[in-house]
């Protein structure tokens, strides 16, 4: 990509496109690009503000252009699984001792990340190609 402005436009267009596909249009999502994500996060993370349908999606400036769609989809899928994860962690906390709960929670988190990663790749595979920026903009215009 040529510059930060172009990159941010691609991220915004990709986000808007996949929000509609995943039926997450009610969510207000702010995108933030930065190079300093938590070390365990590869290219992106999402911070969810419970009960108000608002989130911040952080995308690393180091994320390769060809991976932006996958990262955006993966982070959006966290919004779909958020209520289930919240219920699970609350129940786990009530039924286990802290040390046991942490071991189980870490294992579930790892499996959840793998599942969401596979789902993101599956969505892209169903499209049979990475969607060019111009095509994303065209689809968004048609859906408005």
Q: Overall 3D geometry?
A: elongated
The total count of strands amounts to: 3
Count of helix runs: 4
Give the distance, in angstroms, between the N- and C-terminal Cα atoms: 27 Å
Number of domains: 1
- Main β-sheet, spatial strand arrangement: 1-3-2
Approximate strand percentage: 5-15%
Helix proportion range? 55-70%
- What is the string of helix and strand elements? HEEEHHH
**CATH class bucket:** Mainly Alpha
CATH architecture: Orthogonal Bundle
Name the average pLDDT: 86
**Structural class estimated from helices and strands:** alpha+beta
CATH topology: Arc Repressor Mutant, subunit A
The major sheet is characterized as:
3 strands, mixed
Structural overview:
The protein is of the alpha+beta class and 144 residues long. The chain has one domain: Arc Repressor Mutant, subunit A. The protein has four helices and three strands, in the order H-E-E-E-H-H-H. A three-stranded mixed beta sheet has the order 1-3-2, covered by helices on one side. A hairpin with a 4-residue loop joins strand 2 and strand 3 (54-60). Helix 1 crosses helix 4 and helix 2 packs antiparallel against helix 3. The model has no long low-confidence stretch (mean pLDDT 86).
Short summary of the structure?
The protein has a single domain, classed as Arc Repressor Mutant, subunit A, CATH 1.10.10.
Sum up the structure in keywords.
144 residues, alpha+beta, Arc Repressor Mutant, subunit A, 3-stranded mixed β-sheet
């Amino acid at each position: 990509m040529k510059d930060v402005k172009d990159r941010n436009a691609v991220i915004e267009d990709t986000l808007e496109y996949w929000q509609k596909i995943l039926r997450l249009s009610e969510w207000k999502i702010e995108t933030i690009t930065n190079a300093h994500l938590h070390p365990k996060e590869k290219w992106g993370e999402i911070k969810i503000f419970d009960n108000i349908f608002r989130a911040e999606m952080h995308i690393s400036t180091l994320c390769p252009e060809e991976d932006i769609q996958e990262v955006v989809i993966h982070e959006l899928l966290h919004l779909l699984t958020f209520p289930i994860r919240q219920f699970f962690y609350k129940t786990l906390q009530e039924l286990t001792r802290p040390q046991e709960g942490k071991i189980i929670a870490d294992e579930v988190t790892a499996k959840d990340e793998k599942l969401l990663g596979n789902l993101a790749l599956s969505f892209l595979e169903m499209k049979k190609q990475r969607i060019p920026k111009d095509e994303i903009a065209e689809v968004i215009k048609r859906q408005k």
